[in-house]
Design goal:
The protein has helices at residues 2-23, 29-54, 58-64, 66-97. By secondary structure, it is mainly alpha-helical. The N and C termini lie far apart (46 Å).
């Protein structure tokens, strides 16, 4: 239940931030690049860290707790898509301004 709440909060943050990046003419590039890069790194490292903290292999988590594995994959997907979208969007907006 907690992971579902975290997923919803991350999803709402992602949607609101992407909308904000679309609407502003001069977005804060440093902040967007930093948050996007951190999201990409967190998406890449989340599953191995999850297995490390629990002390079980990811395959065991997928077999015995498929709901947790699915929600974790959803969080990783949302973070990855958000990070890539933020970095690409800022790159495109900065090229249009020049």
């Amino acid at each position: 239940m907690v992971l579902l709440g975290i997923l919803l909060v991350i999803l709402l943050f992602t949607i609101s931030h992407i909308i904000k990046l679309f609407r502003t003419k001069n977005p804060n590039k440093k902040l967007a690049y930093t948050v996007g890069s951190i999201s990409i790194v967190l998406a890449a490292v989340l599953i191995p860290l999850f297995g490390l903290f629990i002390g079980t292999p990811w395959r065991t988590i997928k077999l015995f707790a498929p709901d947790i594995a699915f929600l974790t994959h959803c969080v990783v997907g949302v973070l990855g898509v958000y990070g890539v979208a933020a970095v690409i969007l800022i790159s495109v907006k900065s090229r249009k301004q020049v």
